[in-house]
Design a protein that fits this description.
By secondary structure, the chain is mainly alpha-helical. It has one domain. Helices cover 78% and strands 0% of the residues. It has six helices and no strands. The protein is elongated and about 55 Å long. 20% of the residues are buried.
Length: 138
């Protein structure tokens, strides 16, 4: 759990650096990578955090719960980006001299949420492979 949490903190820090140094504009893959890894490590974190609340013999339900919570976190993040885009652009430039933006258009938002889910689904798939299973069974 500690590693997953520290990975999420690192992703957040990379996000801050990406905004400051303009990596989102310079490297098209930067945002994509952070969203995929964010979904992956959030799924790890949640699977450990919710371990006592997940069902013992219901891999499909547990996977859907984790994917659902990761989706909720991703949607919440996108709302936070929207609010930041509406309120923080001017202060960032005024006080820090940084011209930034916090979100793209609808296509960017859908892409971000898709990558969050692909990261979480990749964790689920790798977790099942590690256990010697090739398919999620209920």
């Amino acid at each position: 759990m500690k590693t997953a949490f520290l990975s999420l903190v690192a992703i957040f820090v990379f996000n801050i650096f990406g905004l400051y140094f303009g990596w989102y504009l310079d490297y098209f893959w930067f945002d994509m990578t952070l969203h995929f890894l964010g979904g992956f490590f959030m799924a790890i974190f949640l699977s450990i955090y919710l371990k006592d609340h997940l069902l013992d013999n219901s891999k499909l339900k547990n996977t859907l719960i984790i994917l659902g919570v990761v989706s909720f976190v991703g949607v919440t993040w996108e709302f936070a980006e929207y609010i930041a885009n509406q309120t923080l652009i001017e202060p960032f430039y005024k006080y820090f001299g940084v011209k930034s933006y916090f979100m793209g258009d609808l296509a960017d938002t859908v892409n971000d949420l898709t990558l969050d889910m692909l990261g979480a689904a990749s964790f689920a798939w790798l977790h099942l492979l590690r256990r010697g299973k090739t398919a999620i069974k209920n």
